[in-house]
Design goal:
Bound molecules: flavin mononucleotide
Function: Catalyzes the synthesis of dihydrouridine, a modified base found in the D-loop of most tRNAs. Specifically modifies U47 in cytoplasmic tRNAs. Catalyzes the synthesis of dihydrouridine in some mRNAs, thereby affecting their translation.
Strand content: 5-15%
Shape: globular
Catalytic activity: a 5,6-dihydrouridine in mRNA + NADP(+) = a uridine in mRNA + NADPH + H(+); a 5,6-dihydrouridine in mRNA + NAD(+) = a uridine in mRNA + NADH + H(+)
Pfam family, one: Dus
Order of helices and strands: HEHEEHHEHEHHEHEHEEHEEHHHHH
Cofactor: FMN
Number of helices: 15
Number of strands: 11
Radius of gyration: 21 Å
Protein name: tRNA-dihydrouridine synthase
Number of domains: 2
Strand order of the largest sheet: 1-2-4-5-6-7-8-11
């Protein structure tokens, strides 16, 4: 982290307002350890993502170690800086507050991870273990807000929406098997309606032990948004795979397909230019009090998801590569991003940008120079009209 630049940062709640006025969901990109780094955030931002999360940063290490600060948090001071929420892993009010004061000049807000299910995190009372510690979570967000306020930041939520020093404090949670416990948790963390402790809440409707291959718990989402959606803006994290195939309806979405439309999509899928092997099912759930969407795995495969692309366009790969050149990533990470973007996505459209053979060639590139040569070769093939298995370039 360098000297404090003069950053004019928009209050995230203003972004919620803008999306609401446009009668759409707020589009956000999830915290992803290793992956949601600057180059990726800039890429999704170029494709309609409103608000981006950093990967989880461990507050204690961040406070104590300047190498951790340099490697865990990078922003751009001279090219588009996506509105950014820094997510922390923390289990102490002082550590979270201190780490928050360090990043807040450079970020639009801070967030606490109460969802990471990994055993190393839970054994240190980080991540999902915090779902059993609702008073501690409340104390962490209250202390953070107080500390930021004392430092002169505007943490009055809607009151500070137009304040250039306005910043947010939010929490990302999973749910309990017994949803009454999640309701207790949220009530405690939310605090009084007239001065709630958090700006918004992100809900990943899976329990700590639900695998990510199991669909999200829509019943939980419906219950929690109908209970709390008027008191605090709520984001959904989980299974946001394609804007036209969400498993619920909302006034902020185009109407869900009827059964007849679904069946006719199945019958006609072979003539579609973007084949849809699994057309969306009619949604059984209506979630009118949801404010926004957060996507992780689907955005990794298709950073242009929120721009209405149901599969990754080649231009997104080019955008990512030029961002990665300016905000470098370890080479293996670049390769991983490319393999995700060039393979089949998470949504119903399973068309891959590059076929398996070409992707294998891509993955065999040993360094950035080989990779650039390989991609130049693909572009030439395309220009010569000789490409095989290369879609979209
Ligand atoms: C590679 C990867 C890294 C993740 N890292 C974090 C993290 O740092 N903090 C967090 O709260 N969640 C993290 N998650 C969980 C996601 O933010 C998200 O809640 C979850 O993947 C469900 O969303 P999805 O169905 O869109 O993938 C991670 C998920 C993935 C796949």
């Amino acid at each position: 982290m360098a000297e404090t630049p003069n950053l004019d940062l928009i209050h995230p709640l203003k972004l919620f307002d803008i999306a609401k006025n446009e009668e759409r969901f707020l589009y956000t990109s999830a915290p992803m350890v290793r992956y949601s780094k600057l180059a990726f955030r800039q890429t999704v931002y170029a494709y309609n993502t409103d608000l981006c999360w950093t990967p989880m940063v461990l507050a204690k290490e961040f406070n104590r170690n300047h190498f951790a600060r340099d490697s865990d948090f990078t922003i751009s001071t001279n090219s588009p800086q996506p509105p950014t929420i820094v997510q922390f892993g923390a289990n102490s009010p002082q550590e979270l507050a201190r780490a928050s004061t360090l990043v807040i000049p450079f970020s639009n807000g801070v967030d606490l991870n109460c969802g990471c299910p990994q055993s190393w995190a839970c054994s240190e009372t980080l991540g999902a273990a915090l779902m059993e510690k609702r008073e501690l979570v409340r104390d962490m967000v209250v202390e953070t807000r107080d500390h930021l306020r004392r430092d002169g930041w505007g943490v009055g939520k809607e009151k500070d929406i137009n304040n250039p020093k306005g910043r947010s404090v939010s929490v990302k949670i999973r749910v309990h098997k017994d949803l009454r416990r999640t309701i207790d948790f949220i009530n405690t963390v939310l605090g009084p309606d007239q001065d709630r402790h958090i700006d918004w809440l992100t809900i990943h409707p899976r329990t700590r032990s639900t695998p990510s291959s199991t669909p999200i718990n829509l019943e939980a989402l419906e219950l929690l948004t109908s209970t709390f959606g008027d008191r605090v803006p709520i984001l959904l994290s989980g299974d946001v795979f394609a804007l036209n195939a969400l498993p619920f309806t909302s006034p902020l979405l185009a109407p869900a397909p009827t059964l007849t439309q679904t069946l006719s999509a199945t019958t006609n899928s072979s003539s579609s230019t973007t084949p849809s092997k699994n057309p969306p099912l009619p949604a059984a759930y209506h979630i009118p009090k949801l404010a926004g969407l957060m996507s992780a795995r689907a955005l990794l495969c298709n950073p242009a998801l929120y721009a209405g692309h149901d599969a990754c366009p080649w231009a997104a790969v080019e955008t990512f590569l030029s961002n990665a050149a300016r905000a470098p990533l370890p080479y293996k990470l670049v390769l991983h991003h490319l393999s995700e973007m060039c393979g089949p996505g998470m949504g119903p459209n399973k068309a891959a940008l590059l076929n398996k053979q070409v992707r294998t060639g891509l993955m065999a590139c040993g360094n950035m120079f080989d990779l650039i040569d390989f991609l130049d070769g693909l572009r030439e093939l395309r220009r010569d009209g000789r490409e095989q298995g290369v879609v979209g370039i």
